[in-house]
Amino acid sequence: MGRSRVQIQMIPKRHFPENTTNILMSHILARRLGINKKMVTHIQVSFGSAHALSSIKFFRHKAPLLSISPQLATQLLLYQQPFLTAHFDPRTYRLKLGPLLGILINPPPNRTAELPFGTMTRFLEECSHCGHTHGIRVAIFFPESIRLDQQRIVGWIHRKGKWTQTIIPFPDVIYNRILSRRIEQKYESKLAYLRERHQIPIFNEKFLNKWQVHQILQQDEQMKVMLPETVLLSVGMLKEMLLRYKNLYLKPTNGSLGGGIIRLILDNKKLIYQSSTPNGTITRTLSTFQETLKILKRKIGNQSYLIQQGLTLVTFQRRPVDFRVLVQKSKRGEWRITSAVGRIANTQHIVSNLARGGTLRKASDLLKELSFQHKKPTILQLKRTALEVAKGFE
Question: Does residue 195 sit in helix, strand or coil?
Answer without folding.
Answer: helix
